[in-house]
């Protein structure tokens, strides 16, 4: 029981790390980006390839799993996304679906369609017992890392000058511009960090979710669910939503396997009926 | 009479405006020469390309499906990522009817249309939840995914991942057998599509259709003008679902097979792509897009068999980056430029 709870929390934390960037960019520019999962996939492949082909240790690959997608993200944002901020949502959906298609087919083309497997270092394998509850070492590792990231993000958002500017831009873009805040620059930076976090999430998630060229599509649904349910007003909403969805998914697969993926879609639709603006809606 | 006209110009203008409105509506409703040419060409394809009937049926079905999506995106401004749900439901209902009830094609078609329409009516209210586009996207996607899971789990009914076996369709109207070359199938698809097209055209050129355009352009203002936004969107959504259901049923009946593939996410994504290739908001976009899509798919598969999706994505991305409006206006801009050069 507790083991499942902890699995669910680890999974939820992972989802949050992947979705955090999307939540901020969606709130900031109102851009519906279905291609966020593609950045997560880049991160995953960076780790998988670095470990399997270059023989790098797992921990050492993680910074690269952050940096490479962040770099790709900043280039994509300046070259492509920035042109579409003022367009209709239909255009944005189409554009990001196109990006997903290209990322999937391109990955398949370059690296093959097989699952990428990695071997975790010995000290992350197996499980340990606390008060009779078995906890996977890797799950505990995930929770610690992701919790650190969550706290770090909250501190950056809440305590730094950059965070204050970002929150101002999310709350009222026009007024923020009027105050001399460089919204475009903030957005590029946020997009980069968001993509980097997604990539880190993808790398950390290989063990739990697998990694193949269809990854962007698979993860897209989860990440979007987290953001829609959580709302884009703050990071607290998506965080709660991610934990909820993670736990519901893991518990559902364990207790009600015949329901399969039913549960999370039902949970999503129900939550959207109850709170269409997300769990924590923007103050009006 | 003339006295009142002078003293109350506003009241006198009203019947005038009314007449003008009905004249405008009539003009919108009339078939234009280009449209007649389009349908004549379509009919001609039946006789001129006798060995391509299977492919052509596929194109027409895809076109009809995209047309149904155009009704909600182009006319009501509802973006959907889960329109495949209705297509898939129609396909499965048509399949199940033929297995358990009757092989008569028209019965299957009507039942499939009804089932899809009812699902549209049932899930439509979800679109009205103080809806932002994102909420709508997720709700439509969620419904489609739920349906896919349901079809996957209910293997006793749908055959699960193996597909539904034993779909047999009786001759159309008791006379025209569905043959291997798809000749009956193509004629059947064409006639059904044409009939539904006329119906859809009638709907969008009616005052009801105009009120939809008003909602699409500004829901808030439409509401303050007294247009009941919710019921109108619900109506067109159900109608669109019904047509998508028919498209699904046509696929089942002409291929005599249904599998989970009809409900997969890529259906919903592909149909969006088809619609955008052809252009949104003038009903022909779906049909023209379907032709373009199949041709492009053929061409790309010839270059790189497994990775045609990459090129398709690239085309879509270029279309969006150039801007769909600019692209539609391209012929006109070119003409204008040519003319100017003539003058210079």
From TrEMBL, chain A:
GO terms for molecular function: transmembrane transporter activity. It holds the Pfam family BPD_transp_2. InterPro entries: ABC_transp_permease, BCAA_transport_permease. It comes from the Bacteria. It is found in: Cell membrane. The keyword Transmembrane helix applies. The chain crosses the membrane at residues 6-24, 31-51, 57-81, 93-118, 138-158, 179-199, 219-245, 254-274. GO terms for biological process: amino acid transport. Keywords: Amino-acid transport, Cell membrane, Membrane, Transmembrane, Transmembrane helix, Transport. GO terms for cellular component: plasma membrane. The keyword GTP-binding does not apply. It is a multi-pass membrane protein. Belongs to the binding-protein-dependent transport system permease family. LivHM subfamily. This is Branched-chain amino acid ABC transporter permease.
Automatic annotation (TrEMBL), chain B:
It is found in: Cell membrane. GO terms for molecular function: branched-chain amino acid transmembrane transporter activity. One of its GO terms (cellular component) is plasma membrane. The chain crosses the membrane at residues 55-78, 85-103, 109-129, 185-204, 234-260, 272-296, 308-327. It is a multi-pass membrane protein. Residues 1-21 are annotated as: Disordered. InterPro entries: ABC_transp_permease, LivM-like. Keywords: Cell membrane, Membrane, Transmembrane, Transmembrane helix. This is Branched-chain amino acid ABC transporter permease. It comes from Paracoccus litorisediminis.
């Amino acid at each position: 029981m507790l083991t499942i709870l902890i699995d669910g929390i680890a999974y939820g934390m992972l989802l949050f790390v992947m979705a955090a960037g999307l939540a901020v960019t969606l709130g900031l520019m109102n851009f519906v980006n279905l291609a966020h999962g593609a950045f997560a996939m880049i991160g995953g492949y960076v780790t998988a390839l670095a470990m399997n082909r270059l023989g790098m240790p797992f921990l050492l690959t993680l910074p690269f799993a952050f940096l490479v997608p962040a770099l790709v993200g900043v280039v994509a944002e300046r070259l492509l996304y920035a042109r579409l901020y003022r367009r209709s949502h239909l255009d944005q959906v189409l554009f990001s679906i196109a990006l997903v298609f290209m990322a999937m087919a391109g990955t398949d083309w370059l690296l093959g369609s097989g699952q990428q497997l990695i071997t975790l270092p010995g000290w992350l394998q197996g499980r340990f017992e606390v008060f009779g509850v078995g906890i996977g070492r890797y799950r505990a590792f995930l929770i610690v890392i992701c919790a650190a990231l969550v706290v770090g993000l909250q501190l950056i958002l809440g305590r730094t000058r950059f965070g204050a500017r970002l929150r101002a831009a999310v709350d009222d873009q026009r007024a923020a511009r009027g105050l001399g805040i460089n919204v475009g620059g903030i957005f590029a930076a946020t997009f980069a960090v968001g993509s980097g976090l997604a990539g880190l999430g993808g790398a950390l998630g290989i063990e739990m979710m697998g990694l193949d060229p269809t990854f962007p599509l698979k993860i897209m649904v989860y990440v979007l669910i987290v953001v829609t349910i959580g709302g884009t007003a703050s990071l607290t909403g998506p965080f709660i939503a991610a934990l909820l969805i993670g736990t519901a998914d893991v518990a559902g697969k364990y207790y009600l396997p015949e329901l399969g993926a039913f549960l999370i879609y039902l949970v999503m639709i129900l939550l959207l009926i109850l709170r269409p603006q997300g769990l924590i809606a923007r103050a009006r | 009479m003339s006295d009142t006209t002078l003293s109350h110009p506003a009241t006198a203008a009203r019947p005038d405006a009314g007449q003008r409105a009905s004249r405008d509506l009539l003009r919108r409703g009339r078939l234009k020469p280009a449209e007649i040419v389009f349908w004549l060409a379509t009919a001609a394809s039946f006789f001129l390309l006798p060995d391509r009937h299977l492919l052509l049926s596929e194109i027409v079905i895809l076109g009809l499906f995209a047309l149904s999506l155009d009704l909600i995106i182009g006319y009501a401004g509802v973006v959907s990522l889960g329109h495949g749900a209705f297509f898939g439901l129609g396909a499965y209902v048509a399949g199940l009817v033929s297995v358990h009830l009757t092989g008569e094609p028209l019965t299957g078609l009507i039942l499939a249309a009804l089932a899809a329409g009812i699902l549209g009516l049932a899930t439509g209210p979800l679109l009205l939840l103080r809806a932002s586009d994102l909420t709508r996207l997720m709700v439509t996607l969620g419904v489609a995914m739920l349906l896919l899971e349901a079809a996957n789990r209910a293997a006793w009914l749908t055959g699960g991942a193996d597909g539904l076996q034993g779909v047999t369709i009786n001759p159309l109207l008791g006379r025209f057998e569905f043959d291997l070359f798809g000749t009956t199938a193509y004629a059947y698809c064409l006639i059904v599509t044409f009939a539904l097209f006329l119906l859809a055209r009638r709907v969008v050129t009616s005052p009801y259709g105009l009120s939809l355009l008003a909602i699409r352009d500004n829901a808030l203002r439409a509401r303050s003008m007294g247009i009941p936004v919710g019921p109108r969107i619900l109506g067109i959504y159900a109608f669109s679902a019904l047509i998508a259901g028919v498209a699904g049923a046509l696929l089942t009946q002409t291929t005599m097979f249904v599998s989970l593939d009809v409900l997969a996410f890529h259906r919903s994504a592909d149909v969006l792509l088809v619609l955008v290739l052809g252009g949104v908001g003038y009903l022909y976009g779906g049909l023209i897009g379907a032709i373009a899509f199949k041709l492009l798919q053929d061409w790309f598969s010839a270059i790189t068999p497994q990775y045609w999706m990459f090129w398709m994505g690239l085309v879509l991305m270029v279309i969006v980056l150039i801007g769909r409006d600019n692209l539609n206006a391209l012929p006109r801009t070119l003409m204008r430029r040519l003319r100017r050069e003539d003058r210079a």
